[in-house]
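Inverse folding, one chain.
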């Protein structure tokens, strides 16, 4: 017992030093600048003119489950382990930033005579629902990629009838193995989705 009491201060000191050496997980240094990024898209071509008999479309709010419903910029460096960059994030949740881009893509497609954004009370012929499955940066060995998965569903409003659905799943090599590289790649992948979506919607429209 006396021996234990003699070495007890040494044990406590060792534990305290070890604790000080551990990184403060989840604590941000206020002296380090925060970087916030946006998702944006500009159509490469001018908008197509819709037919007079083209249906109207409501773009419903994009749904996403945690952790993909936040503004965290997420990455994976181990299987099934999701983390967020400490000093890099999205300016808003990706789902919220994607909503006006879906509206823009639908408007430019020429498939609809009217495209109504979420929150509008206008009654439309069709409704576009979308789910953000994931948007993340994946690091494997010396490689990096961005993974984006979005599911869309086109619905007939009057008949409450689904006309079709599709899952878009993209895996794109990063411009650079960094948050900035992930942001640039994410914008490129989003552009691919917004250009692919009208083709899928056209195939779902009633003949």
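Residues assigned per position:
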């Amino acid at each position: 017992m006396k021996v234990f009491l003699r070495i007890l201060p040494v044990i406590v000191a060792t534990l305290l030093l070890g604790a000080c050496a551990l990184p403060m997980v989840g604590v941000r240094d206020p002296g380090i600048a925060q970087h916030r990024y946006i998702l944006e898209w500009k159509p490469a071509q001018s908008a197509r003119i819709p037919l007079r008999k083209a249906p109207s479309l409501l773009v419903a709010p994009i749904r996403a489950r945690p952790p993909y419903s936040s503004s965290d910029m997420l990455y994976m460096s181990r299987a099934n382990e999701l983390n967020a960059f400490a000093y890099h994030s999205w300016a808003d949740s990706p789902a919220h930033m994607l909503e006006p881009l879906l509206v823009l893509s639908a408007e430019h497609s020429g498939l609809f005579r009217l495209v109504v954004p979420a929150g509008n009370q206008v009654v439309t012929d069709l409704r576009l629902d979308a789910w953000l499955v994931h948007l993340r940066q994946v690091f494997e060995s010396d490689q990096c990629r961005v993974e984006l998965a979005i599911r869309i569903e086109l619905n007939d409003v009057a008949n409450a009838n689904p006309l079709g659905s599709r899952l878009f799943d993209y895996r794109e090599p990063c411009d650079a193995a960094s948050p900035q590289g992930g942001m640039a790649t994410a914008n490129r992948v989003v552009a691919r989705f917004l250009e692919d979506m009208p083709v899928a919607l056209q195939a779902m429209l009633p003949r």
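Residues 1-26 have pLDDT under 50 and may be disordered. Residues 125 and 159 are 9 Å apart (CA to CA).
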